[in-house]
Write a structure and sequence with these properties.
By secondary structure, the chain is mostly helical. It contains 6 helices and 6 strands. The longest helix is centred in the middle third of the chain and has 22 residues.
Length: 211
């Protein structure tokens, strides 16, 4: 299936599991395409997937209904935010087409906000949800002090906001990527030890008294 993006992606069978580790709903939306450079997998293959994603995101309305046209518009917004984020990270000028897409989405109505004992509750339709995501992306990209990074695990292309002290965060999420990298490095060390690997093996010792 080809989505509104410069690549073809493969759907994922079974239950869809979404991650919200990027620190901004706009980046979490971008993260619904995994492994963008290698074998892209789109977690939003149908309107029902988008409805589930909105319902799972704490910063968005509890429930929305998505039709085919609205679904396509959100995918366009997702890819525009991704390209603008890359431009920001690489110190490039924003492209006008991506700016138009994000600004047009942000011009929509905002969700209704209600205060309760449980905190804030947002309600609205997909159009207000789309506007909220676009505005979150704009606020993030307009802040020159924002530390925007890509996950340090090979193959993971998830973008995230690094709000850690000293901006030392390396992974999009410790559970999803950090632990996997550490486990892989541990297995490599165990395997090297089991094989009696010597990093100096193969070197010819220099006789004493010779340069």
């Amino acid at each position: 299936m080809t989505i509104v993006a410069p690549f073809t992606v493969t759907g994922q069978d079974g239950d869809v599991k979404f991650a919200f580790v990027s620190g901004n709903p706009a980046l979490d939306l971008v993260g619904t395409v995994e492994s963008r450079r290698d074998k892209p997998v789109d977690l939003l293959m149908a309107p029902a997937d988008l409805e589930e994603w909105v319902r799972a995101c704490d910063e968005l309305p509890d429930q929305v209904t998505v039709d085919a046209a609205a679904f396509t518009a959100v995918l366009e917004l997702r890819e525009a935010i991704y390209q603008l984020a890359l431009d920001r990270m690489r110190n490039r000028r924003f492209t006008s087409a991506d700016l138009d897409t994000v600004n047009a989405a942000a011009a929509g109505p905002v969700p209704t906000i209600e205060l309760s004992d449980d905190g804030l509750r947002l309600s609205g339709d997909l159009r207000t949800t789309q506007a909220h995501v676009a505005r979150s992306g704009i606020a993030m990209l307009a802040d020159l002090h924002t530390c925007l990074k890509e996950c340090g695990r090979a193959g993971c292309t998830r973008l995230y906001l690094d709000r850690s002290r000293g901006a030392r965060r390396t992974w999009c999420g410790m559970e999803s990527c950090g632990n996997r990298v550490k486990a892989s490095a541990y297995r490599a060390r165990r395997q090297a030890a089991a094989q009696g690997h010597d990093p100096k093996r193969g070197q010819v010792p220099t006789p004493r008294g010779r340069p």
